[in-house]
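Researcher: Go.
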Amino acid sequence: EPARQIMFKLHLGSTRHTLTDQDLRDLAKRTDGYSGADLGVVVRDAIYEPVRKVQQATHFRRVRGPSHSDPSVELDDLWTPCSPGMPGAVEMDWMKVDPEKLLEPPVCRDDMERALIHTKPTVNQDS
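Model: Structure:
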């Protein structure tokens, strides 16, 4: 279990996420029987969820966040997907957002949960 928790962290690398240590412990418990490669598939699928959110968004709002070119610099003019009813929501699709001004949502627990639904262990449970 601790090894799977470490593997989740390794596969996430420097990807922006909101997963807590408790989230990672819970995910490690739920992935008994998953190989390291299986966990890599889960994390890659979860990492793609924010991209899907961007591509499916009909509204974006201005937010503050790190610059793509220098993450130590905070910018006030980035765009992130949001629901139509959110204050500051502007109707547009992702193709109208300057790529340098796009702030993808961080990977969250729900993204990992969705990925787990689609990824089953490949390791034989009977061995």
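Model: Strands lie at 59-66, 74-82, 90-91.
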